[in-house]
């Protein structure tokens, strides 16, 4: 008994003496500052390399004139590349300041520091090997500044194509989601519909949407509607499949409880079955989304008068691989953004799920 | 605000997937007075939940008839509230919306919005309106289920072992809450339970059922004055009486071997 109390007081003492020594982790101010510096250091080095590393290879540095708000600004590809890097540095600085107050954000920011720093360094190495010395195989691996040049040379055209892709995607995907959820509800709710439609869905659903392209191109009035059609069917099947599954797995007790409380059948569908199916519907939407991107780019490459896929194809013909890369960068950013937006909507809609809401 | 329920000559037979028939209820007669608190008690398989589902209108009998205030029961109706054993809350709705479900479904939410807060306080869950079912304890969830049923102002409340999955402290707490609500609302209460103490503590009458085939073997009047004490001498005497009844009510002991 006595020894136990002594031991206990000893541990208490230890923990007291431990306290003043601040832990060397994300909670510590100096540690956080170092991590913030580490984050931007890579990009700072990338800027420095672009400015100070001698341009050895024979790369023509053209001067472009941009007019923004009536101002004419002369820019080279290196200027734009540096501006983008400085932009990244600013974004990460702001992010560091915004993370300061929140413990979780601080932790996340510190965790990402090493990767972001490596990203900057990779850009610096790419710059040297690509534009400065051209030791990578040309014209396949131009430097990052040359990729940025595509936006200077083709800016408006790239924007047009991006908007075309976006238009195609949003028309196709939103129709696909609506049709998919609608069909899914019908299949999940009415056994008759299940009997007749489900097998069709199951068999046709495994066929990649682009396989239908010949039909789409000949049967539909123009190539835009043809591509919309392809995106619609690729989203449709996947989402309908999972929606039906979610509706069918609704526990009987939920329906019974709702009926006793006064729900009519329509109410049961929209206030019991559909909410219960929501997690499955979102699983369907996320996976259909990835397939919709593929279908979008494929159909643009194969038969569209515009879009990022079309731009890639056209640039490839002229061996303008820096433009191909420029389009790929836009795709990566755009599609990540769309994924992010869907993720946010999902998180908000499914906030009732365990593990999504914090106490 | 309360209903009398009449059950006469009710049979319910289930057929399982192998084609075997199980007589869940046979020749059940019972009259439940308006405003009465009645418990159905018995071992599993005695048909007590089946009987409750028949009263609710979730199920139909093969023979016999159930009526409420003289009207035949043909299907579910919000006038007969139902509290399930557990897990019947809608997980996608927060507590406030779960309780308001009946009002919304019947298109009365606009006029009676204030009632939601009232019923939340009635079951002592102020401040939990915005919580989701997975964030609250089992006892709280059952209180929500009771409030959700009561907001429709049912004339009879059917309770299917609502406290079966709770620990004994939470259970005692909820039993008192239930009595309080019963006193306030005067609703007819029909409780399915396998807890003898619970039945004695709450009920005016206890209906004892036996299995194979499910039927009522006895109805016991509980004439102890309220509030009752779980440890009182009369309480324990009644408990003993029922326990003895069950030993008698049990079928012949089965041999522990098979030849």
From TrEMBL, chain A:
CDD domains, sorted: TM_PBP2
One of the protein's GO biological processes: transmembrane transport
Entry annotated with the keyword Transport: yes
Pfam family, one: BPD_transp_1
Segments traversing the membrane: 29-53, 80-101, 168-190, 196-217, 224-244, 320-342
Top-level taxon in the UniProt lineage: Bacteria
Keywords: Cell membrane, Membrane, Transmembrane, Transmembrane helix, Transport
Location of this chain's protein in the cell: Cell membrane
Main subcellular localisation: membrane
Recorded topology in the membrane: Multi-pass membrane protein
Chain ranges of the ABC transmembrane type-1 domain: 162-343
GO cellular component: plasma membrane
Similarity-based family: Belongs to the binding-protein-dependent transport system permease family.
Annotated protein name in UniProt: ABC transporter, permease protein
UniProtKB/TrEMBL annotation, chain B:
Keyword presence, Membrane: no
Origin superkingdom: Bacteria
Signal peptide positions on this chain: none
GO MF, any single term: ATP binding
Keyword terms of this UniProt record: ATP-binding, Nucleotide-binding, Transport
InterPro entries attached to this UniProt entry: AAA+_ATPase, ABC_transporter-like_ATP-bd, ABC_transporter-like_CS, ABC_transporter_ATP-bind, P-loop_NTPase
One Pfam family of this chain: ABC_tran
Gene3D superfamilies: P-loop containing nucleotide triphosphate hydrolases
Membrane-spanning segments: none
UniProt entry tagged with the keyword Nucleotide-binding: yes
Location of the ABC transporter domain: 5-236
Protein name: ABC transporter, ATP-binding protein
Organism per entry: Ruminococcus albus 8
